[in-house]
Design a protein that fits this description.
Layout lengths: L5 H29 L3 E7 L4 E7 L10 E8 L2 E11 L11 E4 L5 E6 L2 E7 L4 E3 L8 H16 L8 H22 L4 H5 L1
Antiparallel strand pairs: 1-2, 2-3, 3-4, 5-6, 6-7, 7-8
Helix pairs in contact: 2-3
């Protein structure tokens, strides 16, 4: 509280500034800690390759919650970290991830139950979903090819929910285009 003297006012002002600055720095440190991605799974994809799956930091989580992934082999990035899937409304999925391999170890996948959420072909270096992926037919074809390659050499039959979602969206898009092409034109348009 100000005392009325000049030196007392300065000390009080400096004390308040110190408390405010300290509080601000602690808040910034908390935000940096809370926004840091959390490692939720470490999976061996081959003798030399490991995948790391991260959940969003607690401070940044908003449903649907994205998971990021990076793949390293021999200390180098095979696949740099990128957001590869949604985690539903939860920050960390309820069901654990596991790794699946083809018998000849050329194709590996990160799975939840029998659902492949990430597939990589070590012989070509291709992976699905690709970084910066979008709902496009190109991505669907690559995913189909890699899933087929995985299932050829694996006793288990894996599926991929996102690939099925892509195919359904493509079919709906095609149907809408066909419907719009069949729509009758107005009399004014046909008179031209």
């Amino acid at each position: 509280m100000p005392t009325g003297s000049k030196s007392g006012d300065v000390r009080w002002t400096l004390g308040c500034a110190f408390v405010c600055l300290t509080s601000l720095l602690l808040f910034i440190a908390y935000l940096a800690w809370a926004s840091k991605p959390e490692l939720i799974a470490t999976l061996r994809l081959s003798n030399e390759t490991t995948a790391y799956v991260y959940a969003e930091g607690a401070f940044h989580h908003e449903p649907p919650g994205y998971l990021s992934l990076e793949v390293r082999g021999r200390g180098e990035f095979v696949v740099p970290r990128y957001e590869f899937t949604k985690a539903s409304g939860l920050r960390i999925p309820r069901h654990p991830f596991s790794a699946a391999y083809s018998e000849n170890n050329t194709v590996a996948a990160i799975t939840q139950f029998k659902d492949a959420v990430f597939i990589i072909d070590f012989s070509t270096g291709e992976y699905w979903p690709p970084s910066g992926w979008s709902y496009s037919r190109f991505n669907s074809r690559l995913g189909d090819r890699l899933l087929e390659k995985l299932n050829e050499d694996t006793p288990d039959n894996y599926t991929c929910y996102f690939l099925e979602e892509l195919k359904q969206q493509a079919a709906r898009r095609k149907e809408r285009l066909n419907d719009s092409a069949k729509a009758p034109t107005s009399g004014a348009d046909s008179a031209k």
